[in-house]
Amino acid sequence: MNPQTQRIRQSAPPRAVAAAPSTFAVQLSSTRRGARLARLLATQWLDERGVPYRSAASHTAALLVAELAANAVRHCGSIGRDFRLRLTLGAAGTARGPVLRVEVTDARADKPLPSGPCRLPDPEEESGRGLVLVDAVAHRWGERVNDLITKTLWAELDLPE
């Protein structure tokens, strides 16, 4: 193996999670490509801030972004409206340690979440498992209606120090 290639393939030393709050926001098309891009941009952004790409925290964050973005695509894609992804990496040193907040805003405030706890769909149903997954892996999550047009689904993930 070429010495340069070997040096590039060696894993970098772990970086500390950013001490100051950091935010990333992007508006994407409500398509499968937009949802995929949201997940890829999120994991890249987290890696640049000290949450390694192949870590459990990165995989969990990618799942949260993917499910919330897929939900926005499902409800906004047919009407041709975009969705907005916003990631906030809270400061380390808080009572819980660093916290990642994932927010996906779509233009369907008229479609609120069903009330009550998440329920598993029947086995023959093709959809309806996304928010069940979010409920299972997020430490906190919910919905916020911003105005007559937009709503935000958010999820928080406590990161290891």
From TrEMBL:
Record InterPro entries: Anti-sigma-factor_SerPK, HATPase_C_sf, HATPase_dom
Keyword field: ATP-binding, Kinase, Nucleotide-binding, Serine/threonine-protein kinase, Transferase
GO terms assigned for molecular function: ATP binding
Record carries keyword Nucleus: no
Domain Histidine kinase/HSP90-like ATPase: 31-139
PANTHER family listed in its UniProt record: ANTI-SIGMA-F FACTOR RSBW, ANTI-SIGMA-F FACTOR RSBW-RELATED
Name of the protein in question: ATP-binding protein
Record organism: Streptomyces tubbatahanensis
Lineage: Bacteria, Bacillati, Actinomycetota, Actinomycetes, Kitasatosporales
